[in-house]
């Protein structure tokens, strides 16, 4: 690390390098200042991170910090000081083990952890970070698709770079499908109480062009679903899409890297409320969380839930109405029977 100099007129003051005495302090800085993770310097179009958890419990231990961006991509952060022998090899196995557990989560689980940490809705918090172009529907759809595709970013944060660790991270990035980054945060002090933190990021590999997100449309969606699902499901989803074109105020297309999606939206008091989304993997998601956040009364939502539960194989629990942030999804097999599809359409029209 080069020497850091502060120049004021003719006065030159070298900053003293300081050491983190405990990992908790490094965690504190990253939790409070997510911009210390300078993804924008090496990841084109990277969005700002929102911290949604600290000491997040998983079967093998606790994740130091958990972040998410507006694309619904989770970042697991494990901190290690150079003096800790685990900063060499053990931390690699540890963080990969963490991601194996997180990859089994659902969107509801992510939002449950985030809401508990933030003490508010993760949608509202991310809206403040992402700005006016943020879509809660796309956000949740992307979380689901990232989890199913095993797309989770891993980041090891250290105070001093340990060369064997960097070599291991570089090797894994060249020979694996996931991104694992190494963040060095160097600390300098001019005088008591005034710190300068300098982050340096290592290990990024550009994603292949096929994995970049872009807006889906009707043509791409149906080309994708035809390659993934049997004809009965494709035909049923096609009919549901035609119903959507005739009855929705807006059809919103997703931006998932692995699956396409379209969302049925209606306008209520000037707000676009999403009712359901259909994925090109052959699944349907009912957006109770969005409806509840947009002011639909529990009585109305409970009536909708009851009508849906009249369809064989649909068993939505009361929690989707009584609790916030519920977006249950299921295979679209149940609408391959004409009477079930008709019943679903009737329930949606009744809600509208």
Task: Name the descriptors.
14 strands; Trna Endonuclease, Chain: A, domain 1; 2 domains; 352 residues; 5-stranded antiparallel β-sheet; alpha+beta; 7-stranded mixed β-sheet; 12 helices
Question: In words, what does this structure look like?
Answer:
The chain is α+β, with helices and mostly antiparallel strands and 352 residues long. Helix content is 38%, strand content 26%. The protein has 2 domains: 5-103 and 150-207, Trna Endonuclease, Chain: A, domain 1, CATH 3.40.1350.10; 218-351, no CATH class. It contains 12 helices and 14 strands. Strand 10 and strand 11 (261-268) form a beta hairpin. It is elongated.
What value does the average pLDDT take?
Answer: 87
Structural shape: elongated
Euclidean distance between termini CA atoms: 62 Å
Count of helical stretches = 12
Helix content: 25-40%
List how many beta strands DSSP finds.
14
In sequence order, what are the helices and strands, one letter per element? EEEHEEEHHHHEHEEHHEEEEHHHEH
The Cα radius of gyration reads 23 Å
* Overall number of domains: 2
Strand content: 25-35%
């Amino acid at each position: 690390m080069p020497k850091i100099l502060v120049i004021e007129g003719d006065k030159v003051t070298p900053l003293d390098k300081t050491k983190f005495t405990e990992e908790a302090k490094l965690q504190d800085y990253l939790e409070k200042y997510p911009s210390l993770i300078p993804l924008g310097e090496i990841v084109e179009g990277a969005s700002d991170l929102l911290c949604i958890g600290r000491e997040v419990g998983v079967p093998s231990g606790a994740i130091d910090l958990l972040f998410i961006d507006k694309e619904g991509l989770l970042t697991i952060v494990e901190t290690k000081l150079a003096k800790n022998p685990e900063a060499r090899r053990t931390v690699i196995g540890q963080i990969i083990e963490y991601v194996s557990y997180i990859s089994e989560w659902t969107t509801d689980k992510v939002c449950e952890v985030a809401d508990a940490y933030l003490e508010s809705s993760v949608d509202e918090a991310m809206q403040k970070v992402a700005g006016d172009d943020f879509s809660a529907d796309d956000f949740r759809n992307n979380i689901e698709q990232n989890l199913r595709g095993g797309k989770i970013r891993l980041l090891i944060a250290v105070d001093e770079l340990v060369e064997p660790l960097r070599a291991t991270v570089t090797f894994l990035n060249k020979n694996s499908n996931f991104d694992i980054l190494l963040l060095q945060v160097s600390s300098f002090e001019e005088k008591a109480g005034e710190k300068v933190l300098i982050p340096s990021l290592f290990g990024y590999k550009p994603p292949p062009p096929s994995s970049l997100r872009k807006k889906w449309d009707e043509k791409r969606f149906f080309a994708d679903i035809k390659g993934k699902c049997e004809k009965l499901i494709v035909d049923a989803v096609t009919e549901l899409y035609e119903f959507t074109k005739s009855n929705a105020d807006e059809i919103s297309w997703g931006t998932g890297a692995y699956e396409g999606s379209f969302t049925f939206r209606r306008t209520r008091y000037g707000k676009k409320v999403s009712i359901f989304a259909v994925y090109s993997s052959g699944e349907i998601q009912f957006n109770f969380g969005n409806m509840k956040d947009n002011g639909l009364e529990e009585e109305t939502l409970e009536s909708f839930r009851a009508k849906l539960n009249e369809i064989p194989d649909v068993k939505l629990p009361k929690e989707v109405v009584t609790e916030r942030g519920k977006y249950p999804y299921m295979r679209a097999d149940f609408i391959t029977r004409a009477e079930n599809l008709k019943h679903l359409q009737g329930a949606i029209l009744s809600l509208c």
